[in-house]
Amino acid sequence: MLGLTVAVPGLVDPDGVVELAANLGWRQVDLRKSLLGALGDPAYPLLVENDANLAVLAEQRFGGHAGTADLVYLAGGAGIGAGIISDGRLLRGSRGFAGEFGHLPIAPSGGPLCDCGRHGCTDALAGLGALIRRALPEAAVSPAEFGPHVDEIHRLAKAGDPAVLAALATTGRHLGHGISILTNLINPEYVALGGYFTVLAPWLIPDAERELLARSVAGDAGGTRIVASALDSSAAAAGGATHVLDAIDAGALPTP
User: Are β-strands 71-76 and 46-50 bridged in parallel, bridged antiparallel, or unpaired?
Assistant: First the structure.
């Protein structure tokens, strides 16, 4: 065993404490300490990290635009986290909490309630739960059941269902609004839609790009392009393995 990395959709500090994972109902969970105790203090390194941070590491190494120095990965899962590579380095922030794309307030006045307790967050407007409620109003929405609902939305979109296409267009516009904020702040070269967004990207990207172009200060959105991730839903796991292998490449060998 060379190392263990656990991906969490939420705020994770450098000590492996999950300060907030709103979609899981977690607050101040010392996950790394709990795992170390459960595993008997293993000799190999154990890391708890934000899932989007790990996914963007995999996207930079293995994705369709590998090696890109300015790259954002949007994790379409329980929430919309953003893994950000800026000038070739993972952007973490002072306490490791950078990248909470899903909680950018894009409709703060009268917007829908988000799991974080605020109104008008990107998650509440462009997240998978919001999309499913628009496209499949009779469906029960739970993160554990996103997969079958996304498959059904994909099937109906391919069949040209007008209500589903309208729901995808609305979701794409909200995504584009949030991406325009990222573009105005950090000007990435690519924004990769990952997780469950990947399969729906052909219907999300056109409206997202129109909104991005309309809201960006720089002409042509500063060159930022929205693409579908080339990786599947295991991107965070691949990023976790990448993190361990990078440490070994740097000479940090585990104790036998």
Answer: unpaired
- Cα–Cα distances (Å) from 194 to 72, 97, 129, 153, 222, in that order, read 10, 20, 16, 16, 22
Q: Do the Cβ atoms of 106 and 225 come closer than 8 Å?
A: no
Listed residue (67, 101, 90) closest to 194, CA to CA: 101
- Count of beta carbons in the 10 Å neighbourhood of residue 245: 13
Specify the length of the chain in residues.
Answer: 256
Using one digit for the tens of pLDDT, what is the confidence trace for 6-17? 999 889 999 999
First-to-final CA distance of the chain: 9
Q: How far apart are CA 128 and CA 164, in angstroms?
A: 13
pLDDT in tens, 81-124: 999 999 999 998 888 889 989 999 998 777 898 888 889 999 99
